[in-house]
Amino acid sequence: MAYKFLVNGALLVISSLARPSLCQQRRELELVDTPTGDQLTYHGGAVLTGDIPVSIVWYDSFSPEKKAVVVDFVESLTSKPALATPSVAQWWSTIHKVYLSNANAAGGGGGDTRVLLATQAADEQYSLGRSLTLGQVSQLAAGAAPGKGALVLVLTGADVVVEGFGSVRCGLHGADAGAGYACAWAGDAERQCPGQCAWQFAKPSYGPQDKPLAAPNGDVGVDGMMVTLASMVAGAVTNPFRDAYYQGEKDAALEACTACAGVYGSGSYPGYAGDVLVDKATGGSYNAIGAGGHKYLLPAVYDAAKPGCSTLV
């Protein structure tokens, strides 16, 4: 089963796969159209909370500049204070307020959180080859030896082909319920499928063909990857084991950010990302600033109390 939807010229769907792997429970950002469903609600399961150690697996050769964009995002969630607004920390605070703290009140373990960058590992020699199955992505996550409550980010470079990347999916998150950790994957789409998985900053493959936004860090690959990664991180912490916050059937659910796909600023509608900010020096479009100064286009967060999508700008 899958919930499909058309947003801003990109066809998207959230679904899960039954194929077993170390990260057995998956949510994917895929490319297709969506019916409306019931409200996104809490189903009683655990969320990630407390200290969340994050491990990053770099699969391919990533430049220092690309790595810095990702690391700044992770460290800006809670570890480093925001120096400017709107900030990545504000985006995270919405996730905490709307989802994690409410889970705690309901007994789901969602107390205060602190996201900590724990380890980084580079696999520049393609130990599993340059073409990966979803099971191998999970294998890479498990190789980081995460503990209970951890989050592993598997990032694949422009030279790596992942099963279905660009044709049916742009990213995924899942978990090993037995070990108690979550994982998320996103890839650099600039060479393979920018119109599908970095469409905000490239000519979209579907829908309106308006001029794309300028990438906030001047890199379509990493900036597009960050849009997907942020959405997957939000899903991984608020619905890691398929039984916390979601909308629809648990195996094909919309989650905290995927319920607001394509929404980045106020006044958004299909084909228009909304009123976002523009860097006067570079022309890059963004709605959040990291503690290290990098800029990001982060997805809106669904807030059932409104109800609606909360944006930073």
Task: Chart the SSEs and their pairings.
Blueprint: E1 2-7, E2 10-15, E3 25-30, E4 41-42, E5 50-59, H1 64-77, H2 88-105, E6 113-123, E7 131-132, H3 134-142, E8 151-156, E9 161-162, E10 169-176, E11 181-187, H4 194-197, H5 220-238, E12 245-246, E13 277-278, E14 285-286, E15 288-289, E16 295-296, E17 301-303, E18 308-310
Description:
This protein has one domain. The strands form six sheets. An eight-stranded mixed sheet has the order 1-2-3-10-11-8-5-6, sandwiched between helices. Strands 4-12 form a two-stranded antiparallel sheet. A hairpin with a 4-residue loop joins strand 10 and strand 11. It is built from five helices and 18 strands. The chain has 313 residues and is an alpha/beta fold. Helix content is 20%, strand content 26%. The N terminus is likely disordered.
In short:
InterPro entries: EXORDIUM-like (IPR006766). By secondary structure, the chain is of the alpha/beta class. The chain is built from five helices and 18 strands.
